[in-house]
Amino acid sequence: MTIDVSVIPAPRRLESAGESGPFSGDVRTSVDPSLPPEAYRLTVAADGAEIVGGDEAGVFWGRQTLRQLRGPDAFRRAPIAREPAAVPYVTIEDEPRFAWRGFMLDVARHFLPKDDVLRYIDLLAVHKLNVLHLHLTDDQGWRVEIERYPRLTEVGAWRRRTRRGWGDPAVWDERPHGGFYTRDDLREIVAYAAERHIAVVPEIDFPGHAQAAIAAYPELGNTDVVDTAALEVKTDWGINPNVLAPTDAVLRFYEGVLEEVLEVFPGEFVHIGGDECVKDQWRASPTAQARIRELKLKDEDELQSWMIRHFGRWLAARGRRLIGWDEILEGGLAEGAAVACWRWYRGGIAAAEAGHDVVMCPQQEVYLDHVQDDGDQEPVPFGWVHTLEDVYRFEPVPPRLAGTPHADRVIGTQANLWSEATEDRRRVDYQVFPRLVAFAEVAWSRLPGPDERDFAGFERRMNAAHYARLDALGVGYRPPSGPYPWQRRPGIPGRMHDKPRRTWHMA
Ligand code: ACM
């Protein structure tokens, strides 16, 4: 007999005799390498639980499921004295659909203090997500201490003021904003995540989105086109023409940055950004044009590609793999590099067909900075409306790849939170939850196609148990009925995308 015990993400197989009762608290664990990576088998009975994992990660995910079975109070930081919750006696066999189940925090646009990052690692673990991608650098801030280039954080981590929303005329918060993680803070974050079987992927974004670095070291910019010494850490949002110069000196500088990044982040993947690099300055720059001629390149896209390929090889020589946003495909990509596809399915399809691994994170589906309802009380409405149901019906494998050998190139999926309009943890919680819960089920569970998914069943499990778990964890999620007064942001205008959102049917 199968009973609904409100496990989220939904396990592959759950068997129950329909019984529940007291639980001794004993947990026996072991590893059986004949099970797939991260898989587990969990048996719960009156005398305790047994978890057999395919590896230690599998055992860990099994523990997360057991915690859910023990009731919402199991998510408090300490036990509270009450009758122990009745636990359903079940057998669960479970394994993830995708190896990369990611979440990106943009800590560049608004700095998120270390404790908040550690808390997010706990929240990812609860939902069996296993990659935390930290967007550490952008035009509006540089958040990682680099010892050999101290001005990156002395100057680049701070901005004079901050635009609030996207209104016209602009609304400003005139207080300076900033912050950065020391190398030891980041080591702590990495170690804390590793204890939870979560990999931290650092992103150093270049050659675009690099104005904070140029503000710190003006020689990194296109000095033959603009007075880069006059540039400050950007206070406003949007796509920015001030990009790195394609010179050897800039390559050496970023090698120096990445050498220190590799010392702190031991994981396989290093994200080098590569998105939204406006080529206007390269078109105007005699230095950039000379470089194009010297390297016999076709155009500025190939110039970017030359920089990215350089770092693809540089990372490979150090046993690491490059991942970047899907623009890195333009002009060709080094072998072994992976692509984070954010512009609908297109880049992911092209990358997979060209033999590159792909992480699907299209902005049309899983950008959690986008608004989650079309009501007029939503705080700082931005992007397209992605409701909880929309996220639940997101399918990471593009229909065109499904059933082909290229589908295996989709190694995973990721939800991204850009932080222009999320200035603190409360705002982050509101944007991320409950949608990350739906996303976690998409990433872990083998759900049917988007139209066949049982969203009503997911909502039932949310209402029966998972909102209570989030309450116990202290997550400031968006209530199904809409924002609480303190979750609104009256007077801060947003900016909705005007083109209709293309849905999965139209891939
Ligand atoms: C991106 O959203 N610019 C990757």
TrEMBL record:
Q: Which GO terms describe its cellular component?
A: membrane
Q: Where is the active site?
A: 276 (proton donor)
Tell me which SUPFAM superfamilies the record gives.
(Trans)glycosidases, beta-N-acetylhexosaminidase-like domain
> EC number(s)?
3.2.1.52
Enzyme class comes to hydrolase
Q: Which Pfam families match?
A: Glyco_hydro_20, Glyco_hydro_20b
Pinpoint the Glycoside hydrolase family 20 catalytic domain residues.
98-446
Give UniProt keywords alphabetically: Glycosidase, Hydrolase
Using the record's annotation, list all stretches that form the Beta-hexosaminidase bacterial type N-terminal domain.
Answer: 18-94
Catalyzed reactions: Hydrolysis of terminal non-reducing N-acetyl-D-hexosamine residues in N-acetyl-beta-D-hexosaminides
**What Gene Ontology terms for biological process does this UniProt record contain?**
carbohydrate metabolic process; glycosaminoglycan metabolic process
Annotated InterPro entries:
Beta_hexosaminidase_sua/sub (IPR025705), GH (IPR017853), Glyco_hydro_20_cat (IPR015883), Hex-like_dom2 (IPR029018), HEX_bac_N (IPR015882)
Q: Where is this region: Disordered?
A: 484-507
Query: What domain of life?
Result: Bacteria
Coiled-coil-forming residues are: none
Which residue stretches does the UniProt record annotate as biased composition, category Basic residues?
A: 498-507
Recorded hits in Gene3D superfamilies, A to Z, give: Chitobiase/beta-hexosaminidase domain 2-like, Glycosidases
Q: Which is an annotated GO molecular function term of this record? A: beta-N-acetylhexosaminidase activity
- Member of which family? Belongs to the glycosyl hydrolase 20 family.
UniProt name for this protein: beta-N-acetylhexosaminidase
